[in-house]
Structures are given as structure tokens and as C-alpha cells.
Amino acid sequence: MKYILAVGACYVDTILNVNYYPAEDEKLRASSIIRRRGGNCPNTLEVLQQLLDSNHEAAPVALALCAVLPSISSPAYQEIRSSFAPSTDLTHCICREDSSEPASSYVIRSHVADSRTIINHNGLREMASEEFASIAAKLGDKTGWCHFEGRIPDVTLACIKHLRQRCPTVKISVEVEKPGREGLQDLAALADVVFYSKGWAQGHGYMSAEDCLQGQADYTPLASLLLCTWGESGVSALELPSRKYTECPAFKVEASKAVDTVGAGDTFIAGMLFALTCRAADWTLKRKLEFANELAGRKVVQEGLQGLASL
């Protein structure tokens, strides 16, 4: 059984729901508080595991996370471990035994402005490329697909180059999300599949998803598929080298409004990874896009990620 290995940060999120965003030095009571495990790759794996558990006829794959976590004996590690299904493999995570606190996000969600303000803190020493190389060696040819969040581009680039040299059959996907993060273009250039965000595309002067994909095609010589999400306009895909363009409108649940957008992009990626690895032969690209798009659309109208595969 092949692994899908997801490489990225794992956070513990504390979400404060407030009527309005407070002014500086103002005291404000939150209407509710939610604490849950977050992080792009962990979110993607959580949804992927649901899809695998509910689709027994799909091609079998195993899931593994590569992230930096606090000490294995810390309450924070136990909280993170319990947030995943038992079948999700965390043995390839790097535990910093000198740290007991996880990477953390504090989210202030305003009801009036429909906005979310995020404050991050991560005191954990980041993964070195040598540590990833050791993990890749242990997995060997069991890894079929490796997905990278696209953070700390210089380290991620070294990790991708290592895979290209030592594990040439592994499919590599990369998330290109943050517009101000330099070096993401270099990661995309070595990937098989690239997920572009609307924010990154706009930050680089593209006016639409199609503009982004057509423009990026010249800079992604190894890619077979480029994807770009564009909020309420849906998602677009470009197959390479044919440059066949496909788009799919955003999925909207009737009589429902957005409740929680945190993790929607991660959910879309989970849907696409499931479709590309487990439904590669029997679903068209259009069907794959529709599946992932609907999954993300249904996530937006519920709190958290639970139960998405059963909707």
C-alpha cells in the first residue's frame, strides 16, 4: 500500500467569536470559543482519511504526516494525536523533546465584519532538509505521493530536490498560497501538481484563474496539472503539456450561508488528492474538480471538518 505523505506545519487553533473586532486596549467578551487542531496539511489529511474510510471501493492508500511537534510526552502532543484517526501515521513527525508547547494560532472572528484576524506563534525549531531526507529514506518506495504546504521555501526546495533525485517515481504536489512569500515559484517548477491560491495569483498581477494558469504554464516544466481556486468564481485547471483548460463553478449549498471558511482550501486539496490518487482511472478531470469543489463548498457552511465525507 502506497503512502500519501503530507509535509507542513501542525497548529493548535483557538478561535474566539466576537460581535465586532475590538479596538486597541479594549476589553471585549467573546460569544464562544473553539479549540481545535489546525494547519494546512493536517486539515487535508483529516478530510482525506474521512474520504478513504467512506469509499471502500477506492484504490487503497495510507496517510502520513511529516510535521514538527512538541515533545511526545507533552499534553499538546497527545491532544494532536487524538485529533487524527488512528490510521493516520504520525510516526514520521519530528518531535522536539525540549518543547512542550505546540505551534499555535489565535483567530478573532468578527460577526459584523465577517472577518477573521489570525495571530500565530511557533516556538518549535523548524524541520531541516536533512531531517526530511532521513524520513524519506525510512519510507523508501512506500511513498506514492508527497504533498508540500509550501512554507519555508528554501528548505522545502531542498526536500523536493532530494525526492526528485532519490525517489523519482514519487508524485509531488505543492501549495502556492502566500503572495508575499518568496521562493514559491521555484517549488512549483519542480512539482507534478500545483495548487495556486487566488491571493497568490492576484499578488503576482493575474486578473483571473485562467490568466494565472496560462501564465504559470511556462514556469512549471515538470507539471501535468495546475489548479487555481478563485473564491465564488470556482476553480480552474490546466492540463500540461496539452494546455487543455477546464473550469468548474463554485458549489453553493441552497439556503445556507458561510459559517466557517477556515480549512476550505485544505478541504479542496484533500478532495483533489483523493481524486488523483484513488479515482485516477475512472473519473475525468471535470468530475474530479466537481467532487473537490463540492466538498469545499459543503465545508464552508459548517463548523470544522467533521463528517464531510458523509454529506
Question: What do these coordinates show?
Answer:
By secondary structure, the protein is α/β, with parallel strands linked by helices. 32% of the residues lie in helices and 25% in strands. The protein is built from 9 helices and 14 strands. The strands form 3 sheets. The chain has an 8-stranded mixed sheet, with helices on both faces. A 4-stranded mixed sheet has the order 3-2-7-8. The chain has a two-stranded parallel ribbon with strand order 5-6. α1 (40-54) crosses α8, α3 packs parallel to α4 (153-166) and α8 runs antiparallel to α9. The longest helix has 16 residues, at 285-300. The chain is globular and about 55 Å long. The model has no long low-confidence stretch (mean pLDDT 93).
Task: Break the fold down into its secondary structure elements and pairings.
Layout: E1 2-7, E2 11-18, E3 32-38, H1 40-54, E4 61-66, E5 68-70, H2 75-83, E6 94-96, E7 103-110, E8 115-121, H3 129-139, E9 143-148, H4 153-166, E10 171-176, H5 184-188, E11 193-196, H6 198-203, H7 209-216, E12 225-229, E13 235-239, E14 244-248, H8 264-278, H9 285-300
Parallel strand pairs: 1-4, 1-9, 2-7, 5-6, 9-10, 10-11, 11-12
Antiparallel strand pairs: 2-3, 7-8, 12-13, 13-14
Helix pairs in contact: 1-8, 3-4, 8-9
